[in-house]
Amino acid sequence: MHVGYFITFEGVEGCGKTTQIKLLSEFLSARGIRTVLTREPGGCPIADKIRAILLDAENQALSPLAELMLYAAARAQHVTEVISPALDAGKIVLCDRFCDATVAYQSFGRGIDRTVIDALNLHACQGVSPDLTVLVDCDPTVGLERARRRIEATSGPREERFELEALPFHHRVRAGYQQLAADEPDRFLIINGSDTIEEIFAAISAQIVARIPEALRAVC
Ligand code: TMP
């Protein structure tokens, strides 16, 4: 049991979660709340190297099982190096994707047996689990269009291996997230990703301030 508070953001490609998690991080930091903003896959140098393999569009031959294990390896390193220490220090950790992404993408999307994924997640997470998960729900057709525009405007490495998947894959991922949220309604906050950035942020910030434990809230 940690003394901090662990918030994860999830959703299909281009749902807007990365914009929202950055806004939330600025919002909490401006109120003097000790916040760590991180992401998966990645979040520390070794896991970032694994991220580069996972998202490289040239790695089309990566097998679903190897992919799953790389996500688990990146997560094990990230939890050990970043997430656990921050939670133990009483910080609020905001993580852009976490273990639910593995269930949505590798189980619902790729079709890998859920029991294999749950077992790997259990080990990789090392007892850490999100206190709150914000699901930015969005039609994959809309999200993919946004994601493709963003990738075309980027000059860095083309992290688009998943954006190249066919639409039915992304619909299965969305259905997976919706199923996870239905299974754990107390943990999930579902936000409509087709609203404006301002509307979405207003909904998220109001809900999150209400849920953060009193002791961590400082001057919210
Ligand atoms: P991002 O686009 O949010 O940075 O996420 C990177 C990609 O990795 C995204 O397409 C979702 C995918 N992903 C998985 O397939 N499984 C996982 O466990 C995680 C964390 C991400």
Residue-averaged pLDDT: 94
Ions and ligands: thymidine-5'-phosphate
Which stretches of 5+ consecutive residues score pLDDT under 50?
A: none
Helix content, binned percent:
40-55%
CATH class: Alpha Beta
Biggest sheet record = 5 strands, parallel
Oligomer: single chain
Here the CATH topology equals Rossmann fold
Globular, elongated, flat, extended or rod-shaped: what is the shape?
A: globular
Give the spatial strand order of the biggest sheet.
Answer: 2-3-1-4-5
Count of discrete domains:
1
By CATH's scheme, which homologous superfamily applies?
Answer: P-loop containing nucleotide triphosphate hydrolases
Question: How do the SSEs run, as a string of H and E?
Answer: EHEHHEHHEHHEH
Count of separate DSSP helical elements? 8
Short description:
The chain is of the alpha/beta class and 220 residues long. Helix content is 54%, strand content 12%. Thymidine-5'-phosphate (TMP) binds at residues 13, 40-41, 55, 71, 96-97, 101-102, 105-106, 162.
